[in-house]
Structure formats: C-alpha cells, structure tokens
Amino acid sequence: MNIHPSDDSALAASFARLGGQDYEEVWSELWNDLCHLNDVHEGSFVALPYLAAIATGRAPGNPQDAVQMAGLIASASDAEHDARYAEEIAALLPVARHLLDSATEHAPTFVYLQQCVLAFEGERVWSAGKLEGLFEEEYEIDCPACESTLFIAFGDLGAFASAGDYVTTEPPKAPLLPADPVVLDPLPARLHQTALATGHTTIARGVTYLFGRATCPDCADVFPVSQQVLDRDW
C-alpha cells in the first residue's frame, strides 16, 4: 500500500479496514506509508481527520494509536497546517490529555503521549522526539566549548557525563548537576509535575538532569544540558 497525498479514496479505504481482524497489519501499513521511520511529509497531514475520528470514537481503531501517530504529525506542523487542521487538532488534544493522565505504568508510552500533548498545543521543540531520552535515560550531545562528543546518562549506573571516542581506556566521567525542581522554567516544571502525578518518578528525575547542567570531563566546561540537546543535529 502506497498512499499518495491526493488519493483520499485510498486513504479512506485503508482506515476503514481498521474495523477488521487484520488491525495490526493495516496499522503497520498505514504507519509505513504515512510516517515511515518517523518521517512526516505532506501526505501525512491528510490523515489527521481520520486519526481524529478514531481518537474521538467516531471511527474504528485504537484511540491511543491514533493519538500517537497524529502527535508525531502535528509535531512537524507549521502555521499553514495548524490553520488547515485546527478542528482536528482541537479534538485530539483532550483525548491526548486524558490518555496521558492514565499512562501510569509504561514510561515510554507516558513520554510519547506527553510529546503528543505538547504537539497538539503547538509546541514545536520538545514535542519532536527530544523527550525520548528521558525513558532511554541518556542523551548524546556535544560539549559547546571543546566539541567533544559526550554521553549524558542518568540511569541505574549513576548520573554523569562521559566522554566518547575512548576505545582502549575507560572514558572520563563527571557528575551531572540536576536542576532544583522548584526553580525549573514553566515547561520543564510542568513535565516534572506531570511525571510525578502519574507515578513516573524516574522520568521526573530525568527531567531535572535534562534541564540541569553538565561538566565536560575533557575540558571542564559547565553548560546547560537541554541547550546542547536542542543544538544536536537530530
């Protein structure tokens, strides 16, 4: 199945098949055509009315699947698409918020849904996959001073920045400096509070490291982690 942006009848037929027993196969085909390797193109946006219908129970399908695909698409939106699909995005937002409030068990699902909520709200920076390091518990960034490749880790082995490109010797490490949740800016403060409210304490802890500071183990420069995550070529 290869859906062309102008072939609305083929798209409608594909979404209609979600009411059958081969749901997983059809959904996989839709994802491959509309968001292959998480790549959003013009044809992806044409799916938003169908995804909104699924999310709001007006069409067969899994609402969470629909919200997550629509969130990925919305994260790549611009002013023109925002205006064209304003009704669909407005319908998707409360569903995404409800699913996020209920996402108390699986950390990746929580983060994906948080990105969806941000995307439907019009946030175009952190909604575009940049929060996923929170459940992976690591980010790869560059030191802004010496340009060393660094790995920011905050999992079971501790919270530290380690220098890359060390093959025969143990890479040097420096402890991370987490942000105080009390003084976080509005967006990270909201991410932190939402994670705590849904029981994702590990994600909340990760937010303090993502929006905290790191010391480069190669040159000792101290810098904000979040800015280097944003500056990285994704």
Strand and helix layout:
Blueprint: H1 8-16, H2 23-35, H3 42-45, H4 48-55, H5 63-75, H6 79-84, H7 86-102, H8 107-121, H9 133-136, E1 138-142, E2 149-155, E3 158-163, E4 173-175, H10 186-197, H11 201-210, E5 213-215, E6 222-224, H12 225-231
Antiparallel strand pairs: 1-2, 2-3, 3-4, 5-6
Helix pairs in contact: 4-5, 4-7, 5-7, 5-8, 7-8, 10-11
Short structural summary:
By secondary structure, this protein is α+β, with helices and mostly antiparallel strands.
Give the neighbour order of strands across the main sheet.
1-2-3-4
Number of helical segments?
12
Structural class: alpha+beta
Q: How many whole angstroms does the radius of gyration measure?
A: 20 Å
Unreliable sequence segments: none
Question: SSE string, helix = H, strand = E?
Answer: HHHHHHHHHEEEEHHEEH
- Ends distance: 28 Å
Shape: elongated
* Total domains: 2
Counted beta strands: 6
How would you describe this protein?
A hairpin with a 2-residue loop joins β2 (149-155) and β3 (158-163). The strands form 2 sheets. The protein has a 4-stranded antiparallel sheet. With 234 residues, it is α+β, with helices and mostly antiparallel strands. The longest helix is centred in the middle third of the chain and has 17 residues, at 86-102. The chain is built from 12 helices and 6 strands. The chain is 50% helix and 12% strand.
